[in-house]
Amino acid sequence: MTLLEVDGIDVSYGDLQVLWDASMAIAEEDSVVTLVGPNGAGKTTLLRTLSGLLEPSAGTIEILGSDISTRPAEEIVDLGFVHVPEGRNLFDEMTVAENLQMGSYRHRDEFEETHAEVVEMFPVLEERREQKAGTLSGGEQQMLAIGRGLMAQPDILALDEPSGALAPQLAERVFEKIEEISTDVTVLLVEQHVDRALELADRAYLLENGRIAAEGTGSELLQSDHVVEAYLRG
Ligand SMILES: Nc1ncnc2c1ncn2[C@@H]1O[C@H](COP(=O)(O)OP(=O)(O)O)[C@@H](O)[C@H]1O
Ligand SMILES: [Mg+2]
Fold first, then answer.
1. pLDDT digits (tens, 9 = 90+) for 46-61
2. Which intervals hold domain ABC transporter (predicted)?
């Protein structure tokens, strides 16, 4: 089965069309599917549409075989698609533990088990469980945002620029964690760090000006003249 199938969607904000005939797919065997592209290309808009926060004016979206084009966001989470938004969107005044708890509302009965898995992956979240999320460092906040997403037991975890605003060393730690997560959960990774994101990708899409400008395996895109010239040189 195809985990995700986006076919020819158009998406607009009012009169401003941002996505044009965009198509992409995640196959069951994919571990990481990457969406790269410059600032303003429409990457976040695409993720928000997949999450049910925006409705396409044309085209179809299927997640795990269900058409989601007109479904509310909660139902899309229930289908197994969980979106960790750009800028993390944590509850700053709540503790780390409370933030993780908020992530698990779908599976309260399995809280202990899932929580144990998440803190095993991110031990810092256990060390800092009573600390308010807003007082964590940028890297810790990103780990918490990802951990909270995992608490919902997704089949597909969509991460919008998880390395954003992090120093290179911390960004690398995040990429290592993504690799680890992707052995269990399919990751849809949106990134501006084109080289690292393509290295991780089984399948990759380049979005430019709201259109899919290239697609292929991660290594195909890494070697494409267009990608090298526009994003990797210099
Ligand atoms: N809420 C909004 N209202 C109007 N225009 C928006 C809104 N959000 C994003 N846009 C516009 O849509 C385009 C794509 O933005 P976005 O999806 O955030 O791109 P990316 O994530 O690739 O940087 C940009 O031109 C941006 O200004
Ligand atoms: Mg964005």
1. 999 999 999 999 999 9
2. 4-234
